[in-house]
Write a structure and sequence with these properties.
With 706 residues, the chain is mainly alpha-helical. The protein folds into three domains: 159 residues, no CATH class; 55 residues; 404 residues, no CATH class. It contains 29 helices and four strands. Helix 23 packs antiparallel against helix 24 and helix 27 packs across helix 28. The longest helix has 37 residues. The protein starts with a helix and ends in a 35-residue tail after the last helix. Keywords: Membrane, Signal, Transmembrane, Transmembrane helix. InterPro entries: Acyl_transf_3_dom, Nose-resist-to-fluoxetine_N, O2_lipid_transport_reg. GO terms for molecular function: acyltransferase activity, transferring groups other than amino-acyl groups.
Length: 706
């Protein structure tokens, strides 16, 4: 007790001894600014000739001129609203220009809230925030890759249009000091916008879905509470009852968080799937930022640090998903063919494709609708919904090319809508076109393996030729072509096909002999080496060595996919050890079921956060980690909401409306996961197998983690 009292006494004495800034002193400091701003306004250079020319030619409206002139005079008279408008305007004198600070965006809240709430503001004048983009600034050459423009926030009368603000910025009439070599190239003013027809339709769709979910959930809760188990059957087996249960948040939430693993599953894939999805979010946390940084040079310098390969190669996670997709499709397809005696008709193929389309598209279309129709109304700030913001430019593209995404040809047609949606197009195209290979592989294994190897070699050759002749593999030509073409990205998918076929043919068993253990150890060493080499060599050969660079780019994704394939195989045949235990942890299962929706929605969350930022943002490696954790959490939470609204209900409705595919009849085990059966970002529930001998049984090694 005495010790505590002593500490408290020391704290009080130390506070008493510290210099204090009183409220009166603080107010005195603030009171100095009105006179300073008034003097600044009087002395600023205004090109009145240009202002009057704009007025006489009709480029400047009388109302805009009158209000701007009033603000100018009221600033010299030290009226608070006018001085708040001047104070919230960027002054074109930022610090750290040679560190990449090409921003002076002012203060958004001070302009839109404080100035408009000032007691001395004239009734007819309202403050409005605009973001001006200047070109031809003198900036370091090293920054040209990122931005060649200077962005500045200005607070102007709301009666002025964007074009009038752009014309007046050069005259100095808006409190902006013009520089002779700087030209305003664009202006975007934040104004309240009426909801578009698309936005109204989107809100109506969301409202209808919420009503259906509420009614369905209430229905299930009512029959659960009111009736006994035996009396409940008529209410759950009828078409209406099944429809209500398919849309019930209660039932679908239980399915998402169910961690029971049925026999025949591939649980090791849960961990791989979640880790891969988080890796993508990690990379996108910074790279999908649609706003400029005030220290771009530091961002550039980080790319040269030794640890950057973790961030720089996050795109390898896409190859993991392609590998898993090929594996799962093949493994389940082979089981289906086995049940039907190798029969596969055109009708089966039609159901095969339709099943896939209906599994993926409803929630994809739902989130695409929100991104296209509603995101611009979801926030405000200096960066929100500005026309030259690249995030909003993709929204504009989506309004024209949304149909390409829903047909899964967006990686070939038009511009980029949903920047990350190219992967879904690649995955769907490979699923549709390589079904024939699966049939051949089942009926004529040697021919199928030969065709698969030929396709892998062909994609290697094509990649090598394209890389060699395109040279600028980091430019837009690379992004629009080789990076997102299905026939240049199919090697990992076909590796997954071969792995799935191997697991099917061997029934996930290997001989339990000393030689097997040695070979498995060698496989771990080689597989790990493949993956590490692909990761730790971010850019492969030197850019100066074009041939070596092209050669490296040709094989790096296949090397990484081969390394991941070995991890999957070892876990499935019982030689995964602690890795298998970690990847098969039941806690991965709920997260695994949300990776598909989290993948689709995470760029929207990232871009919404950054666009809602009210000031200049600094780049930091530490900040990147904190943003990653936050974005991952929000992506999973919002992904869960999207799954409840537009994914899980349609998964169940498909079972009600469409016939079962031959060889894929529903069982309690296969139905347990809502049909998440054949896509890398969804959970796999394999058909249950006969009981297997325990690990170490005679002649075989049983599954461990598969």
């Amino acid at each position: 007790m005495k010790g505590t009292a002593g500490v408290m006494l020391l704290v009080v004495l130390s506070l008493c001894g510290c210099p204090q800034t009183t409220a009166a002193q603080s107010q005195a400091i603030v009171d100095d600014f009105p006179a300073y701003f008034a003097e600044m306004e009087k002395n600023k250079p205004i090109n009145w000739t240009s202002v009057l020319d704009l007025l006489s030619t009709g480029q400047l409206s009388p109302t805009c001129y009158s209000h701007t002139y009033t603000v100018h005079n009221d600033t010299t008279l030290a009226k608070s609203y006018a001085q708040l408008m001047l104070d919230s305007t960027g002054k074109l004198t930022p610090s750290g220009v040679f560190q990449g600070n090409l921003l002076d965006i002012g203060n958004y809240k001070e302009c839109t809230t404080d100035a408009n709430n000032a007691v001395d503001r004239p009734e007819g004048i309202q403050a409005m925030y605009c973001l001006v983009t200047w070109a031809k600034t003198v900036i370091p050459q090293s920054l040209y890759y990122y931005d060649e423009k200077f962005r500045q926030g200005v607070c102007v009368p709301k009666s002025c249009s964007d074009s009038e603000v752009q014309d007046l910025t050069e005259t100095g009439f808006l409190g902006v000091k013009p520089m002779p070599s700087w030209i305003p190239v664009s202006v975007y003013c934040q104004k309240e916008q009426a909801y578009s027809t698309g936005a109204i339709v989107a809100l109506a769709v969301i409202a209808i879905l919420l009503c259906v979910l509420a009614v369905s959930t209430s229905y299930e809760l009512f029959i659960t509470i009111w009736f006994r188990d035996a009396e409940r059957k008529p209410f759950t087996t009828s078409r209406v009852g099944r429809f209500c249960l398919s849309c019930s948040v209660y039932s679908n939430t239980k399915k998402v968080f169910n961690t029971y693993q049925h026999p025949g599953q591939l649980p090791a894939l849960h961990g791989i799937r979640v880790i891969s999805a988080l890796w993508i979010i990690f990379g996108h946390s910074e790279n999908f930022s649609p706003i400029d940084r005030a220290n771009t040079v530091e961002r550039v310098e980080d790319r040269e640090r030794w640890w950057y390969f973790i961030r720089g190669n996050y795109g390898m996670a896409v190859d993991t998903f392609l590998l898993l997709s090929g594996l799962l499709v093949t493994y389940l397809f082979m089981k289906q063919m086995k049940k039907t005696g190798g029969q596969f008709t055109w009708r089966d193929y039609g159901l095969h494709v339709l099943h896939r389309y209906l599994r993926l598209t409803p929630v994809y279309a739902f989130l695409l609708m929100i991104n296209t129709c509603l995101i611009e109304y979801m926030g405000s700030g200096p960066w929100w919904a500005i026309r030259d913001n690249w995030a909003m430019s993709f929204v504009q593209v989506c309004r024209e090319y949304w149909w390409a995404n829903l047909l899964y040809i967006n990686n070939f047609v038009g511009q980029r809508c949903f920047l990350h949606g190219w992967y879904l197009g690649v995955d769907m195209q490979l699923y549709v076109t390589l079904t024939g290979l699966l049939v051949v592989l089942y009926r004529h294994p040697k021919v199928g393996v030969a065709v698969a190897c030929f396709l892998i070699g062909s994609t290697w050759l094509l990649n090598g030729v394209l890389y060699y002749f395109m040279v600028d593999v980091y430019g837009q030509i690379y992004r629009y072509t080789t990076y997102r073409w299905s026939f240049t990205r199919m090697a990992p998918y076909i590796i997954g096909i071969l792995l799935g076929y191997l697991l099917f043919r061997t029934d996930r068993k290997v001989p339990d002999t000393p030689n097997t253990r040695k070979l498995m150890m060698l496989g771990w060493l080689v597989g790990t080496a493949f993956a590490l080499v692909a990761l730790v060599t971010p850019y492969g050969a030197s850019e100066a060595n074009l041939l070596g660079h092209a050669a490296w780019r040709t094989f790096e994704r296949s090397l990484f996919a081969a390394g991941v394939a070995w991890v999957v195989y070892a876990c499935c045949v019982g030689y995964g050890g602690i890795v298998s235990e970690f990847l098969s942890w039941s806690g991965w299962m709920p997260l695994s079921r949300l990776t598909y929706t989290a993948y689709i929605i995470h760029p929207m969350i990232i871009q919404a956060y950054y666009m809602d930022y009210k000031g200049a943002m600094l780049y930091s490696s530490v900040t990147w980690w904190f943003m990653f954790v936050s974005f991952s959490f929000m992506s999973l939470v919002c992904g869960f909401a999207a799954s409840m609204m537009a994914e899980a209900p349609f998964l169940e409705l498909e079972k009600i409306l469409l016939p079962n595919r031959r060889g894929r009849e529903a069982t309690p085990e296969t139905a347990a996961d809502g049909g998440h059966d054949n896509i890398a970002m969804k959970t796999v529930e394999c058909d249950p197998d006969p009981p297997l001998p325990p690990h170490g049984g005679k002649g075989t090694s049983g599954p461990n983690g598969c």
